Amino acid sequence: MKRRSIFLNTTAMLGFIFLYAPIISLIVYSFNKSKLVTVWGGWSLKWYTELFNNEQIMDAALVSFNIALISASLAVVLGTMAGFVLSRMGRFRGKMILSGWITAPLIMPEVITGLSLLLLFVAMENMFGWPAGRGTGTIIIAHTTFCMAYVAVIVQSRLASMDETLEEAAMDLGAKPSSLFFLITLPLIAPALISGWLLSFTLSLDDLVIASFVSGPGNSTLPMVIFSKVRLGVTPEVNALATIMIAIVAVGVLAAMYQMRRQTKLSSGQE
Amino acid sequence: MSISSGSAWVNKSASGMARYNLFRRVNWGRLGVIAVPGLWLGIFFFIPFLVVFKISLSESAIAVPPYSAMFEWNLEDAYATFKLNFGNYLYLIEDDFYLDAYISSVKIAAVSTFFTLLVGFPIAYLIARSKPSLRVVLLSLVILPFWTSFLLRVYAWMGFLKKNGIVNEFLLSTGIIDQPLIMLQTDFAVYIGIVYTYLPFMILPLYTALEKMDLTLLEAAEDLGSRPYQSFFLITLPLAIPGVIAGCLLVFIPAVGEFVIPALLGGSDTLMIGRVLWDEFFLNRDWPMASAVAIVMLVVLVLPIMLIRNAQGKEEVHS
């Protein structure tokens, strides 16, 4: 056992270094005074001030934030319904097709999703005059569509692992379907809804390909601006932006981790 | 079965009974829950493919939008024309460029999936065999990069791999090499990028499979004189196969259609079909050709994967 552990620990350690070295280098070089990535010019917050003074990036960040907020919320509503269709609706005509539609966005290459939605929007505009032009609205529709698939899968697995006796008891006691849902089922699946919302928010905030297809002129999201900057080479402002985003995510994940550890301790203490 | 067996608020009696109920009294709540996501996906997920298929059969034109109309009619002389153009598909077959791009995408995705498995397995194994309290920490460390921006993680490798980047500077300073290696804008960089960004997708299913494993099997094997590597190949690996398959699919599927990684890390000769479609659309503005590429990609790459996944799902239900 011991000998194997040494080999295993080294390879796994190398794996973790592989995972974190690029992220750490981004953080370190965001504080670099010199513009050259490999030359260390001393510590400085210069790139952070440049970042906050860069109107293009700040505007795009606001646009992306709004889109992510709305898309994630819509995706949670639609995705929860879809999750119920997958796990609690019994059989009905067309269930196979609908289940296929619900999970297919998960494996669809982004370029295809983006192209097909753009062509749909163009065709619809020609036929009904809606959506007039493309912009935030069309990006929200596109993001909602692919994010709801993730929410549906999360909600479905939560419903599948849930104790149904509570719902049965409520129904035996005469609860109406609507009160059953809002008083019993919804609180029980709330953790799944929260993680679904957070995942959708992140996915929407991060999407470059689909947004590039369905956005109109003058409606650049944050990833689109980053991509156009980064294509020309490494830019220290983007390092600063990355550091801020990583810090936010790290705080969130650490908080979730702390919560989980506490729960593990509580449950193991009870045993 | 008790009266309220199965799901509570849905009348989940025998299906014949349910259909009978549907005729007598429409259950609006149930209908709404099915119809709302159904309509949304029908309009924004299914119909778009029909539109793509339609446009793949039209001709590129200098117009807004830049393709010819399939159906035209002239009321005055009561003359209707219906034009189908298979030229895009013919061109796809005739020009080796597209075939090469499809093959090269599958090759790049397959090779990187294999390396992701090689890197991911020891990590997943270590996590599955560590103490529960440490497990949570290590799992969070694996998931943390997944929550940070994909684009920025790919970008981080640009600073690492470029000619005067961190890797080259390090190797030069230690004297391992005297000339900087050309790594950025090569296929090698694309492999690294895919392995790096999709590693969490590989580790999590592997971990789930390894964690479920019954460790007494290994003890039994050891008692019977099996060497550690024999136990690994004869017991651990076969039991981890479901995780290996799930992880490989989770990496391979998105990697085939990848655009960002080849665009930022790959060279101009790195052929991947997602990038070809992007260039066809954004650079050549040839919407019909881009649509034809998408349809072929859908039929050749996506549909088989969906069928495999379906078959897998059914197997799980049976077992």
From TrEMBL, chain A:
It is a multi-pass membrane protein. It comes from Neptunomonas antarctica. The chain crosses the membrane at residues 12-31, 60-86, 98-124, 136-159, 180-199, 238-258. One of its GO terms (biological process) is transmembrane transport. Belongs to the binding-protein-dependent transport system permease family. CysTW subfamily. Pfam families: BPD_transp_1. It is found in: Cell membrane. PROSITE patterns: ABC_TM1. Coiled coil: none annotated. Residues 61-256 form the ABC transmembrane type-1 domain. GO terms for cellular component: plasma membrane. SUPFAM superfamilies: MetI-like. The lineage of its organism: Bacteria, Pseudomonadati, Pseudomonadota, Gammaproteobacteria, Oceanospirillales. Keywords: Cell membrane, Membrane, Transmembrane, Transmembrane helix, Transport. This is Putrescine transport system permease protein.
TrEMBL record, chain B:
PROSITE patterns: ABC_TM1. Gene3D superfamilies: MetI-like (1.10.3720.10). It is found in: Cell membrane. Keywords: Cell membrane, Membrane, Transmembrane, Transmembrane helix, Transport. This is Putrescine transport system permease protein. InterPro entries: MetI-like, MetI-like_sf. The keyword Phosphoprotein does not apply. The lineage of its organism: Bacteria, Pseudomonadati, Pseudomonadota, Gammaproteobacteria, Oceanospirillales. It comes from Neptunomonas antarctica. The chain crosses the membrane at residues 31-53, 108-127, 134-156, 188-210, 231-253, 290-308. Belongs to the binding-protein-dependent transport system permease family. CysTW subfamily. Its main location: membrane. One of its GO terms (cellular component) is plasma membrane. It is a multi-pass membrane protein. GO terms for biological process: transmembrane transport.
